[in-house]
Amino acid sequence: MSVFSDAELTRYSRHMILHEIGGPGQRALKAARVLVVGAGGLGAPVLLYLAAAGVGTIGIVDDDMVEASNLQRQVIHSTATLGHKKTASAVAAMQALNPHVAGVAHDLHLDPDNARNLFAGYDLVLDGTDNFPVRLTINAAAVAAGVPVVGGLLSQWEGQLSVWDPAHGGPCLACIFPEAPAPGLAPSCAEAGVLGPLPGIIGTMMAAEAVKIITGAGEPLRARMFIWDALGAESRIIRLRRNPACAVCGESRGAGVS
Ligand SMILES: [Zn+2]
Fold first, then answer.
1. Long-range pairs of 51-54 with CB within 8 A, sequence gap ≥ 24
2. Ligand 1 centre and the CA of 179: distance in Å?
3. I want to staple 202 with a disulfide (CB 3.0 to 4.6 A). Which of 27, 119, 152, 180 is the partner?
4. CA of 116 relative to ligand 1 center, distance in Å
5. Which has the closest alpha carbon to 55: 161, 210, 204?
6. What's the 169 CA to ligand 1 centre distance in angstroms?
7. Does position 257 have pLDDT exceeding 80, yes or no?
8. What three-state secondary structure class fits 164?
9. How far is ligand 1, taken at its centre, from the CA of residue 216, in Å?
10. Quick one: angle between helices 132-145 and 112-119, nearest 10?
């Protein structure tokens, strides 16, 4: 017996006829538990496309409210949800798009302790945060839980994307960026500004990487970083290497040295 209702079979038919996804891939999407950290610019397209694609359980971590300055790019929210919790606004939008998936709201500020417990309940984490220290917290918790991270990063007109997955030989975020940059060197979108469609582009690519990882289709962006410069309309991919001495995923981790 199919795990899908007739309504789901119709809804997912364009996936089902893709050779690389098909019925098995769509079943894997339905069984998947994916956690999205940040229901902002990157989280908006990530959450909508994961819900539309039929990812069965989608967790959302955010403790912010929807503000008017968010709506230039955070398209999962709307004028009608101004002042609402971002998690509740996002879950409602996902349910409106696809009632066959479950959105789970985690209204909390991520810290090293709660991150590790939370991540253990998910297969994959998507990092759409706008804050480097939080990104390193996510990385450390994901490495500890053995869960890959699809990470996106925005700065004004440029976006970056990579899959951090040391369990499959690639680097973790800390292999490349061991420490948060000095204050001012990596300003947030609130400080430096960001092109509205840019998180749409990078976030949608994050969702595509998630679908690939879950279904086993193609080659995820492990050990590679995709960079998109919207001003020049140019993209490039740089190769990344794991750092064997990385304090988070390297060979000496957990040695108890303090
Ligand atoms: Zn590492």
1. 51/94, 51/97, 51/98, 51/101, 51/103, 52/97, 52/98, 53/15, 53/29, 53/207, 53/211, 54/8, 54/11, 54/12, 54/15, 54/26, 54/29, 54/30, 54/98, 54/100, 54/101
2. 11
3. 152
4. 17
5. 210
6. 10
7. no
8. strand
9. 23
10. 40
Task: State the amino acid at position 16 in one-letter form.
Answer: M
Instruction: For residues 137 and 141, give the distance between their C-alpha atoms in angstroms, rounded to a whole number.
Output: 6
Q: What is the pTM of this model?
A: 0.95
Place of tokens 């040695």: 255
Q: Measure 176 CA to ligand 1 centroid, in angstroms.
A: 7
The model's confidence at residue 45, banded by pLDDT at 50, 70 and 90, is: very high
Ligand 1 centroid to Cα of residue 178, in Å, is 8
Distance 217 CA to ligand 1 centre (A): 25
User: Do the beta carbons of residue 107 and residue 87 sit within 8 Å?
Assistant: yes
Rounded to the nearest angstrom, the distance between the alpha carbon of 38 and the centre of ligand 1 is 22
CA of 248 to the centre of ligand 1 (A): 5
DSSP state of 101: S
CA of 251 to the centre of ligand 1 (A): 9
Instruction: Please tell me the distance between residue 149's alpha carbon and the centre of ligand 1 in angstroms.
Output: 12
Residue 163: which H helix or E strand, with range? strand 158-164
Report pLDDT digits (tens) over 122-155.
999 999 998 899 999 999 999 999 999 999 999 9
pLDDT of 192 higher than 80 = yes
